[in-house]
Design brief:
mainly beta, 8-stranded mixed beta sheet, 37% strand
Length: 328
Amino acid sequence: MKKLLFSIVSLCLVMVAKAQNELVVATLQHEDAVSVFTGVGALGSAHEAAADGDIITLSAGVFNATTITKSVAIYGAGFEENSETNTAVTKINGQLYLGAEGGETLTGVHLEGIYFNTHVNKNVALENFEMRACYVNGNLTIGANTNTIIKNCVITGAIAGASLVANNCLIENCWVGNDINSFAANSSVNINHCIVGGYVGPYLCQNSIFPYYWVGAYYDRAVFANTEGATVYNCIFRSFEYNNKDKNTFINCYAVDFRDIFTDAANANYSETRTFEIKNPETWIGTDETEIGIRPGWSKVPGIPVVNSLQLNVEGKTLNVTYDAKVR
Protein backbone atom coordinates (compact mmCIF):
# COMPACT_ATOMS: atom_id res chain seq x y z
CA MET A 1 0.00 0.00 0.00
CA LYS A 2 2.84 2.36 0.85
CA LYS A 3 4.53 1.75 -2.52
CA LEU A 4 1.22 2.29 -4.30
CA LEU A 5 0.65 5.60 -2.47
CA PHE A 6 4.06 6.92 -3.45
CA SER A 7 3.59 5.70 -7.01
CA ILE A 8 0.44 7.81 -7.19
CA VAL A 9 2.28 10.79 -5.72
CA SER A 10 5.00 10.28 -8.34
CA LEU A 11 2.39 10.35 -11.09
CA CYS A 12 0.93 13.54 -9.64
CA LEU A 13 4.37 15.17 -9.67
CA VAL A 14 4.84 14.07 -13.28
CA MET A 15 1.56 15.74 -14.22
CA VAL A 16 2.47 18.94 -12.36
CA ALA A 17 5.93 19.14 -13.91
CA LYS A 18 4.64 18.53 -17.44
CA ALA A 19 1.94 21.16 -17.00
CA GLN A 20 4.56 23.68 -15.90
CA ASN A 21 7.27 23.14 -18.50
CA GLU A 22 5.99 20.72 -21.16
CA LEU A 23 9.13 18.62 -20.74
CA VAL A 24 9.37 14.89 -20.40
CA VAL A 25 9.64 13.95 -16.74
CA ALA A 26 11.07 11.09 -14.69
CA THR A 27 10.31 10.67 -11.00
CA LEU A 28 12.46 8.63 -8.67
CA GLN A 29 10.83 7.02 -5.64
CA HIS A 30 13.32 6.08 -2.92
CA GLU A 31 11.63 4.89 0.28
CA ASP A 32 9.56 7.92 1.40
CA ALA A 33 11.30 10.45 -0.85
CA VAL A 34 10.32 11.40 -4.40
CA SER A 35 12.64 13.31 -6.75
CA VAL A 36 11.80 14.84 -10.14
CA PHE A 37 14.07 14.99 -13.23
CA THR A 38 13.21 16.66 -16.54
CA GLY A 39 14.40 16.58 -20.13
CA VAL A 40 15.41 13.84 -22.55
CA GLY A 41 18.20 12.75 -20.20
CA ALA A 42 15.84 12.40 -17.24
CA LEU A 43 15.91 8.59 -17.27
CA GLY A 44 19.70 8.56 -17.04
CA SER A 45 19.66 11.18 -14.28
CA ALA A 46 17.05 9.29 -12.27
CA HIS A 47 18.96 6.03 -12.67
CA GLU A 48 22.22 7.66 -11.58
CA ALA A 49 20.54 8.90 -8.40
CA ALA A 50 18.71 5.62 -7.74
CA ALA A 51 19.53 2.86 -5.29
CA ASP A 52 18.64 -0.81 -5.61
CA GLY A 53 14.90 -1.32 -5.14
CA ASP A 54 13.89 2.17 -6.25
CA ILE A 55 11.05 2.94 -8.69
CA ILE A 56 11.40 5.25 -11.70
CA THR A 57 8.21 6.52 -13.35
CA LEU A 58 8.42 8.11 -16.81
CA SER A 59 5.92 10.48 -18.36
CA ALA A 60 4.74 10.14 -21.93
CA GLY A 61 7.34 11.41 -24.39
CA VAL A 62 10.81 10.54 -25.65
CA PHE A 63 13.82 9.77 -23.44
CA ASN A 64 17.43 8.97 -24.25
CA ALA A 65 18.54 5.43 -23.49
CA THR A 66 20.89 4.60 -20.65
CA THR A 67 22.63 1.52 -19.25
CA ILE A 68 20.70 -0.09 -16.38
CA THR A 69 23.16 -1.24 -13.72
CA LYS A 70 20.88 -1.17 -10.66
CA SER A 71 17.95 -3.27 -9.45
CA VAL A 72 15.26 -0.74 -10.34
CA ALA A 73 11.71 -0.83 -11.67
CA ILE A 74 10.99 1.53 -14.58
CA TYR A 75 7.37 2.27 -15.50
CA GLY A 76 6.19 4.21 -18.54
CA ALA A 77 2.80 5.42 -19.74
CA GLY A 78 2.44 2.65 -22.32
CA PHE A 79 3.57 1.76 -25.84
CA GLU A 80 0.41 2.75 -27.72
CA GLU A 81 -1.91 5.70 -27.30
CA ASN A 82 -5.46 4.70 -26.38
CA SER A 83 -8.01 7.04 -24.82
CA GLU A 84 -10.21 4.16 -23.66
CA THR A 85 -7.46 2.67 -21.49
CA ASN A 86 -5.77 6.00 -20.61
CA THR A 87 -2.48 4.87 -22.10
CA ALA A 88 0.02 7.11 -23.87
CA VAL A 89 3.48 6.43 -25.31
CA THR A 90 6.74 6.50 -23.39
CA LYS A 91 9.55 6.01 -25.90
CA ILE A 92 13.23 5.33 -25.26
CA ASN A 93 15.54 6.13 -28.17
CA GLY A 94 18.78 4.24 -28.62
CA GLN A 95 19.79 0.79 -27.44
CA LEU A 96 19.04 0.00 -23.81
CA TYR A 97 21.69 -2.14 -22.13
CA LEU A 98 21.02 -4.23 -19.05
CA GLY A 99 24.16 -4.34 -16.92
CA ALA A 100 27.61 -2.87 -17.47
CA GLU A 101 29.97 -4.94 -19.56
CA GLY A 102 32.00 -7.19 -17.30
CA GLY A 103 29.70 -6.54 -14.35
CA GLU A 104 28.04 -8.97 -11.97
CA THR A 105 24.61 -10.58 -12.25
CA LEU A 106 21.86 -7.96 -12.40
CA THR A 107 18.87 -8.81 -10.21
CA GLY A 108 15.29 -7.59 -10.07
CA VAL A 109 15.06 -5.22 -13.05
CA HIS A 110 11.44 -4.50 -14.03
CA LEU A 111 10.47 -2.73 -17.28
CA GLU A 112 6.83 -1.89 -18.01
CA GLY A 113 4.81 0.32 -20.33
CA ILE A 114 7.68 1.44 -22.58
CA TYR A 115 8.29 1.64 -26.34
CA PHE A 116 11.94 0.87 -27.14
CA ASN A 117 12.90 2.34 -30.49
CA THR A 118 15.63 -0.23 -31.08
CA HIS A 119 17.20 -3.33 -29.55
CA VAL A 120 17.35 -4.19 -25.84
CA ASN A 121 20.57 -6.03 -24.97
CA LYS A 122 22.16 -7.57 -21.91
CA ASN A 123 25.78 -7.24 -20.80
CA VAL A 124 25.49 -9.53 -17.77
CA ALA A 125 23.45 -12.47 -16.51
CA LEU A 126 19.94 -11.50 -15.40
CA GLU A 127 18.02 -12.78 -12.39
CA ASN A 128 14.30 -12.13 -11.71
CA PHE A 129 14.05 -9.91 -14.78
CA GLU A 130 10.54 -8.82 -15.82
CA MET A 131 9.36 -7.03 -18.93
CA ARG A 132 5.64 -6.33 -19.23
CA ALA A 133 3.50 -4.37 -21.68
CA CYS A 134 6.52 -3.19 -23.69
CA TYR A 135 7.23 -2.77 -27.40
CA VAL A 136 10.73 -3.56 -28.68
CA ASN A 137 11.35 -2.33 -32.22
CA GLY A 138 14.14 -4.83 -32.80
CA ASN A 139 15.66 -7.74 -30.90
CA LEU A 140 15.54 -8.59 -27.21
CA THR A 141 18.77 -10.32 -26.19
CA ILE A 142 18.62 -11.62 -22.63
CA GLY A 143 21.31 -14.31 -22.68
CA ALA A 144 21.96 -16.04 -19.36
CA ASN A 145 18.92 -15.55 -17.14
CA THR A 146 17.08 -17.08 -14.19
CA ASN A 147 13.38 -16.66 -13.35
CA THR A 148 12.52 -14.33 -16.24
CA ILE A 149 9.03 -13.14 -17.19
CA ILE A 150 8.32 -11.50 -20.56
CA LYS A 151 4.58 -10.88 -20.77
CA ASN A 152 2.18 -8.85 -22.92
CA CYS A 153 4.97 -7.54 -25.13
CA VAL A 154 5.43 -6.88 -28.83
CA ILE A 155 8.93 -7.66 -30.09
CA THR A 156 9.37 -7.03 -33.80
CA GLY A 157 12.66 -8.94 -33.99
CA ALA A 158 13.89 -12.02 -32.16
CA ILE A 159 14.26 -13.09 -28.53
CA ALA A 160 17.83 -14.32 -28.43
CA GLY A 161 19.76 -16.30 -25.87
CA ALA A 162 23.33 -15.78 -27.13
CA SER A 163 23.99 -19.53 -26.61
CA LEU A 164 23.68 -19.10 -22.84
CA VAL A 165 21.48 -20.92 -20.31
CA ALA A 166 17.98 -19.75 -19.46
CA ASN A 167 16.60 -21.17 -16.22
CA ASN A 168 12.83 -20.84 -15.93
CA CYS A 169 12.20 -18.25 -18.65
CA LEU A 170 8.50 -17.58 -19.31
CA ILE A 171 7.45 -15.84 -22.53
CA GLU A 172 3.69 -15.33 -22.35
CA ASN A 173 1.05 -13.38 -24.28
CA CYS A 174 3.66 -11.95 -26.62
CA TRP A 175 3.77 -11.19 -30.34
CA VAL A 176 7.28 -11.98 -31.58
CA GLY A 177 8.12 -11.19 -35.19
CA ASN A 178 11.14 -13.45 -35.55
CA ASP A 179 12.89 -16.32 -33.77
CA ILE A 180 12.91 -17.44 -30.15
CA ASN A 181 16.13 -19.34 -30.27
CA SER A 182 19.85 -19.64 -29.45
CA PHE A 183 19.55 -20.41 -25.75
CA ALA A 184 21.84 -23.22 -24.59
CA ALA A 185 20.48 -26.73 -25.11
CA ASN A 186 19.84 -27.36 -21.40
CA SER A 187 17.70 -24.24 -20.99
CA SER A 188 14.14 -24.22 -19.64
CA VAL A 189 12.04 -21.85 -21.76
CA ASN A 190 8.24 -21.83 -21.73
CA ILE A 191 6.42 -20.16 -24.64
CA ASN A 192 2.73 -19.80 -23.75
CA HIS A 193 -0.16 -18.07 -25.56
CA CYS A 194 2.13 -16.33 -28.05
CA ILE A 195 2.30 -15.62 -31.76
CA VAL A 196 5.81 -16.31 -33.05
CA GLY A 197 6.86 -15.60 -36.63
CA GLY A 198 10.22 -17.35 -36.79
CA TYR A 199 12.21 -20.39 -35.69
CA VAL A 200 11.82 -21.85 -32.22
CA GLY A 201 14.39 -23.83 -30.26
CA PRO A 202 13.83 -27.07 -28.30
CA TYR A 203 11.59 -25.50 -25.70
CA LEU A 204 8.21 -26.09 -24.09
CA CYS A 205 5.64 -24.53 -26.42
CA GLN A 206 1.96 -24.45 -25.55
CA ASN A 207 -1.26 -22.70 -26.56
CA SER A 208 0.59 -20.66 -29.19
CA ILE A 209 0.47 -19.92 -32.90
CA PHE A 210 3.55 -20.40 -35.09
CA PRO A 211 2.76 -19.11 -38.60
CA TYR A 212 6.32 -19.74 -39.90
CA TYR A 213 8.97 -17.31 -40.87
CA TRP A 214 8.79 -16.57 -44.60
CA VAL A 215 10.47 -14.34 -47.20
CA GLY A 216 8.14 -13.01 -49.86
CA ALA A 217 5.93 -15.85 -51.06
CA TYR A 218 8.30 -18.69 -50.16
CA TYR A 219 7.27 -21.02 -47.35
CA ASP A 220 10.44 -23.08 -47.20
CA ARG A 221 11.38 -22.36 -43.60
CA ALA A 222 9.45 -24.13 -40.89
CA VAL A 223 9.18 -23.10 -37.29
CA PHE A 224 10.75 -26.34 -36.00
CA ALA A 225 12.83 -27.15 -39.07
CA ASN A 226 16.18 -27.18 -37.26
CA THR A 227 14.95 -28.25 -33.85
CA GLU A 228 15.13 -31.54 -32.00
CA GLY A 229 13.58 -32.18 -28.61
CA ALA A 230 10.81 -29.55 -28.60
CA THR A 231 7.62 -30.41 -26.71
CA VAL A 232 4.59 -28.74 -28.24
CA TYR A 233 1.13 -28.81 -26.66
CA ASN A 234 -2.05 -27.42 -28.22
CA CYS A 235 -0.47 -25.19 -30.83
CA ILE A 236 -1.32 -24.08 -34.36
CA PHE A 237 1.20 -24.08 -37.21
CA ARG A 238 1.09 -24.34 -40.98
CA SER A 239 1.90 -27.97 -41.69
CA PHE A 240 3.37 -31.08 -40.14
CA GLU A 241 5.26 -31.80 -43.33
CA TYR A 242 7.95 -29.18 -42.63
CA ASN A 243 8.36 -29.81 -38.94
CA ASN A 244 10.88 -32.54 -38.17
CA LYS A 245 7.87 -34.31 -36.76
CA ASP A 246 9.71 -37.46 -35.69
CA LYS A 247 12.30 -35.50 -33.68
CA ASN A 248 9.84 -33.37 -31.69
CA THR A 249 6.74 -34.12 -29.62
CA PHE A 250 3.40 -32.67 -30.80
CA ILE A 251 0.28 -33.17 -28.66
CA ASN A 252 -3.18 -31.87 -29.62
CA CYS A 253 -1.76 -29.58 -32.32
CA TYR A 254 -3.41 -28.23 -35.48
CA ALA A 255 -2.05 -27.66 -38.98
CA VAL A 256 -3.70 -24.53 -40.39
CA ASP A 257 -2.48 -22.18 -43.10
CA PHE A 258 -1.83 -18.81 -41.40
CA ARG A 259 -4.19 -17.13 -43.87
CA ASP A 260 -7.01 -19.20 -42.37
CA ILE A 261 -6.27 -18.72 -38.66
CA PHE A 262 -7.57 -15.26 -37.80
CA THR A 263 -10.91 -13.56 -38.39
CA ASP A 264 -9.57 -10.00 -38.58
CA ALA A 265 -6.91 -10.49 -41.29
CA ALA A 266 -5.45 -13.15 -43.59
CA ASN A 267 -2.02 -12.84 -42.00
CA ALA A 268 -0.30 -12.76 -38.62
CA ASN A 269 1.12 -9.24 -38.88
CA TYR A 270 0.93 -6.94 -35.88
CA SER A 271 -0.91 -3.62 -35.81
CA GLU A 272 -2.43 -1.50 -33.05
CA THR A 273 -5.96 -2.43 -34.11
CA ARG A 274 -5.46 -6.19 -34.47
CA THR A 275 -7.55 -8.36 -32.16
CA PHE A 276 -6.11 -11.70 -33.36
CA GLU A 277 -9.45 -13.48 -32.92
CA ILE A 278 -9.13 -17.03 -34.18
CA LYS A 279 -11.70 -18.60 -36.47
CA ASN A 280 -12.43 -21.73 -34.41
CA PRO A 281 -12.08 -20.79 -30.70
CA GLU A 282 -14.35 -23.63 -29.61
CA THR A 283 -12.19 -26.22 -31.40
CA TRP A 284 -8.70 -24.78 -31.04
CA ILE A 285 -8.52 -25.07 -27.26
CA GLY A 286 -5.40 -24.81 -25.13
CA THR A 287 -4.16 -26.80 -22.17
CA ASP A 288 -5.83 -24.28 -19.84
CA GLU A 289 -9.24 -24.66 -21.55
CA THR A 290 -9.00 -21.21 -23.17
CA GLU A 291 -8.59 -20.55 -26.87
CA ILE A 292 -5.18 -21.02 -28.48
CA GLY A 293 -3.35 -17.79 -29.28
CA ILE A 294 -2.48 -14.48 -27.72
CA ARG A 295 -5.89 -13.29 -26.56
CA PRO A 296 -6.36 -15.07 -23.18
CA GLY A 297 -4.45 -12.83 -20.76
CA TRP A 298 -3.43 -10.28 -23.42
CA SER A 299 -3.28 -6.64 -22.25
CA LYS A 300 -1.28 -3.65 -23.49
CA VAL A 301 -2.03 -1.57 -20.39
CA PRO A 302 0.82 -1.02 -17.89
CA GLY A 303 0.00 -1.75 -14.28
CA ILE A 304 0.49 1.75 -12.87
CA PRO A 305 -2.27 3.86 -11.28
CA VAL A 306 -4.30 6.27 -13.43
CA VAL A 307 -4.82 9.74 -11.96
CA ASN A 308 -8.40 10.74 -12.85
CA SER A 309 -8.38 14.16 -11.16
CA LEU A 310 -5.75 16.37 -9.55
CA GLN A 311 -6.06 19.53 -7.43
CA LEU A 312 -3.15 21.60 -6.15
CA ASN A 313 -3.05 24.11 -3.31
CA VAL A 314 0.09 25.99 -2.30
CA GLU A 315 0.35 27.09 1.33
CA GLY A 316 3.64 28.87 1.87
CA LYS A 317 6.35 26.37 0.99
CA THR A 318 3.94 23.42 1.15
CA LEU A 319 2.31 21.91 -1.93
CA ASN A 320 -0.94 20.14 -1.02
CA VAL A 321 -2.06 17.54 -3.58
CA THR A 322 -5.59 16.14 -3.74
CA TYR A 323 -6.15 13.39 -6.27
CA ASP A 324 -8.47 10.61 -7.36
CA ALA A 325 -6.68 7.56 -8.76
CA LYS A 326 -7.34 3.95 -9.57
CA VAL A 327 -5.14 0.95 -10.28
CA ARG A 328 -5.71 -0.68 -13.68
